[in-house]
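During the first year of the project, the team set up a workflow for recording each protein of interest as an amino acid sequence followed immediately by a discrete structure-token representation. This format lets reviewers and collaborators read both layers of information side by side without switching files. As required by the reporting guidelines, we include two representative entries from the current panel. The first entry is reproduced here exactly as it appears in our internal archive.
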Amino acid sequence: MSATQEAKKSIEVTAYSEFVKALDIIDQTQLTLFVDNTPPNKAEQLKVYEARLSEAEKKLDRSTADYVQRLDEKRIDIMRTVISETIGQYNDKYANYISPESLTKYSSRRNGNVDGIGLKFRAIANDFPIAIGPLLGGPMDGKDIEPNDKLLSVNGETLFSLSSNQVEAALKGPSGSVATLTVSRNGTEHTIEVKRAAVELHYEDSELLANNIGYIKISRFGSKSQVQVRKFVAELLLKGAESFIIDLRDNPGGSTLAARAIVSLFCTEETIYFEKFKNGATRKLPREGEHKTHHPLAVLMNENSMSSSEILAGAVQSYQRGVVVGTTSYGKGLIQKVFNLQAPLGGAIRTTIAEFGRPDKQMIHAIGVKPDIHVKTNSDFMFKRTGSLNVSKKTQAFQRELLEKAVKKKHPKQASSLIAAKDAQLEAAIEALQS
């Protein structure tokens, strides 16, 4: 067998092996909560693959020099399609096949770092994007960039009227590469040279409020969120914090390990939540890490607080460790797991492997966590903070300015009252702690 034939055989065998593994993972782990009928089994899906591959082979010209390469590409494309269709038949919006390109983005977001320049921006149709502000600790931190600067070009390539994804792609690049930005401020242009690097995305922020209340905002649960929150708790205690507020509003979830570790900072109990699997088996998920404080605690939630947010709030409420304030959470009581697939198939399968419930065995999915103190106002969205939070006070002020402009445009009659509104949910949490 020639070297070319060996390579072809290796690609075919490895890809097919991963393809079969993916179908096995779906069959063995994916819950059937969202379907009434039984989805097709692995044997049926393998037949679908073979039939499509046979049709594809008939259409390819065997006489061309790149026949083997094109056949391999078609084979892998069919495998990925069949995997997507298989998981799709479970009608689960949280489960899917993740392409190799999307997996890179997913992993970066989950791990809290990306390669780039570390700049928040806003794309604008028929105009240049504007700078919002640099991420603290990133390559752009300390550079000559101000909120509302226009970003004209990167390495000579114009950014005019590009979408957010296109601007992001232009700014990103391998660590060590140089990005030369042309920036316009009040009509005067200047350039900024910045070396791209791994940029940490912090989803946590903190401050000491009046009456010695330690406030911690978590916009999502990254793989390192527990480290940052543990640091904040220690710092706030040194500053004299006598109670704590954890703000989980609009938090879509993320790392369950991070949620367990953060609960453990405030609770001494052994079980944080439990999982129920496809085969009916259950397991208790234990605490993670050290306990830090017995000080009074309030948790802020709303209808957009999901998954790991509900794990944290559910444990606090079940153990009567603190008071939950806001509105009933989203009710996503499901656990997903990502199973990576080797190249050349690549990518990953994300399946819903379990339902989860609170330590007191109350289920979360489609129910949510109901607050102890219900507070709903029309101005909730005025206090929404999502994504990376490691930005300066100046950047935060500009984000608020942009929000107010949008409110004036979208809600002209209510704008004044919405902009002047106090954060009723936060105030309710503060009042609960003081009483």
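The second entry, processed by the same pipeline in the following quarter, appears below.
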Amino acid sequence: MRLRVIDFGLVPALRSQAVFHGIARTITRDSDPVLVMSSPSEPYVCVGMHQQIDREVDEEYCRQNNLPIYRRHVGGGAVYLDRDQYFTQFIFPSSKAPKRAEKLYPLFIEPVIRTYHDLGINAQFRPANDIHVNGRKIGGTGAASIDDATVMAGSFMFDFDTATMARCLKVPSEKFRDKLRTTLDDYMTTMVRELEKTPDRHELRKKFLAHCADVLNVTPQMSEASADEMAAIEKAEIELADPEWTYLQGRKFVEMGVKISAGTHLTESAHKAPGGLIRVHLLNNGGRIDDLMIAGDFTCLPPDGIDRLAAGLKGVELREGELANAIEKAMNGLEIEMPGISASDLETAILGAVQPSE
């Protein structure tokens, strides 16, 4: 099977996201899989599919420092990105990719790990979707379904600006921000930290493609984006820059809030699960779910599954055990995958929003 490899090189911040979003929209069942590679020519902040920007990002700092904020169609957390990250985005027809996330992540992460090994970096896969070096994170990955395509996004970490990352995130105090910076320095590593000399990007790509061929059983061939793909990329740029998309989760929250009436209470909670932070906004009416919004830095496949799950739980009694059973049944029926997030985790997050007096 041929793997088309399109290396866009340095591109504007918005295009670095739009290239894989756009090409994914052109994929059909019979398409060759595509590997897109790029780096942003200027820095920006990228938030996960299900995150609330006002809870995760210091928007004022970003405005003052000309850092645009874009929402991607892939799960995970808010991250500061710049030219020191070399993005890798596999775009496969869904029919040619593993169906389950527990098989998807290890398969597409393996070529990255082998490439790091070639460079002398002791990288290891850490479930559900991270790459670690001697206990420090050197990269995370995210998966998404976009139309008929399965997307697996990751990067090679040449360097990482922990100071700016800590500044971009919303935190309760400056003391907490200082602790966040120290934590990032302790928890993360990069090629700059691990190697005396970082590799040339062309050589790194050559090693990476050789491992892609071996692990994925494909024949990588350098390619260029077609006219149709470029048109789709340009359309994706417009969609990703639309404030209606960027502030999607905030709009949902406002829509929930206006529904409050006598006997209905809007409350919130957060729960940290192995697969990420879960944020819940709950409209509780008489001990049952009247409306529900679930956000956070987790991965959900398909991406709209979390909203369909929340809608399907309306009317369910807010009782331990009964709620988890309803969540499990709904997730199975909707064929939802949330790596590292169980029905019990979701129940804990939702019940955490129930006021004690209720």
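For the second entry, the following points were noted during internal review. The chain has two domains: 2-242, 248-351. Residues 2-242 form a domain with the BirA Bifunctional Protein; domain 2 fold (CATH 3.30.930.10). Both points are flagged for discussion at the upcoming steering committee meeting.
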